[in-house]
Amino acid sequence: DDYHRQLLVVRRLHDAGASRERVAAAAATLRALKAKTWVPRGTTSRKKKRAKLAAGGLQDASGAGDDATAATAATDARAVATYPPPDLPPVDADGFVLAFDAPSIAPGVEPSNARAEDVRVDADAIAHWRRYGFVVFRDVLTREECAATRDEIWDYLEATHRHRGAALSRDDANTWHALSSDTYGLAPEPSVFTPRCVMNRQNPKVIACLAAALSSFPDGDAGDGGGDGFGG
Questions:
Q1: Average model confidence (pLDDT) for the chain?
Q2: Most confident of 6-10, 113-117, 147-151, 189-193
Q3: Which of 10, 63, 86, 176 is the most buried (most CB within 10 A)?
Q4: Would you call 128 exposed, middle or buried from its count of C-beta atoms within 10 A (0-12, 13-18, 19+)?
Q5: Which residues contact 69 (CB under 8 A, 6 or more apart)?
Q6: Domain definitions of the chain by residue range
Q7: How far apart are CA 158 and CA 164, in angstroms?
Q8: β-pairing, 99-101 with 136-138?
Q9: CA-CA distances (angstroms) from residue 160 to 65, 163, 172, 176?
């Protein structure tokens, strides 16, 4: 195309030792051609843009409407057609992803020994899990437990950054930039073993949620032994 032809001209002038003015003039023409084909990052590439134009029987500024480009467009169209349509999860009246009642474990059964048949769960919750790959359960922890967990995590984060010499305060949003973007603002370690967090992991409701989700896998895909145990 015109851009690559002009790029070759600039390179040849430079290699031949042409005057600075002549190389600069050729480079200016090259920049103008590049500006015509520029698209923002994250949008359709030049190649795909031309393929789209070719598929519609059009040509772009560089005349890229040949048979090869049209063939590429046809191939791209077939590839796009193989993708399933978007399947967005349902949301509630406030726009949040739909949440379900927390499952429970049958009375008298130790949570660490719970098996699939010991878990009572909304069938719609499991259907959601199987379809979308995730499920949200409501009211698993109490408001007080959530507040205590939040305070513990803030205590941990503030102490960690204090040792690193980086100021961080839960009460000052201007310091929150100190949180690592690599962990999306979470703790730098994979797990936080503060007392409240450990208690949360042992909470019967939390175990019931995991049991409900994991028990929906075929035997052998999750859990212990036959796939329906949740101990450990």
A1: 77
A2: 147-151
A3: 10
A4: buried
A5: 50, 51, 54
A6: 1-38, 43-83, 99-214
A7: 10
A8: parallel
A9: 59, 5, 16, 13
pLDDT band for 66, please (50, 70, 90 cuts).
low
Residue 167 predicted with pLDDT over 90: no
Task: Report d(CA 113, CA 223) in Å as an integer.
Answer: 11
- Other residues' Cβ atoms within 10 Å of the Cβ of residue 15: 8
**What's the rounded Cα separation, in Å, for the pair 15 and 40?**
32
Alpha carbons 219 and 232: distance in angstroms, whole number: 17
**Predicted confidence band of residue 97 (pLDDT cuts 50, 70, 90):** very high
- Nearest residue to 52 via CA among 41, 62, 64, 40: 64
For residue 74, which amino acid is it? A
Amino acid symbol at 165? G
- Kindly report the length of the chain: 232
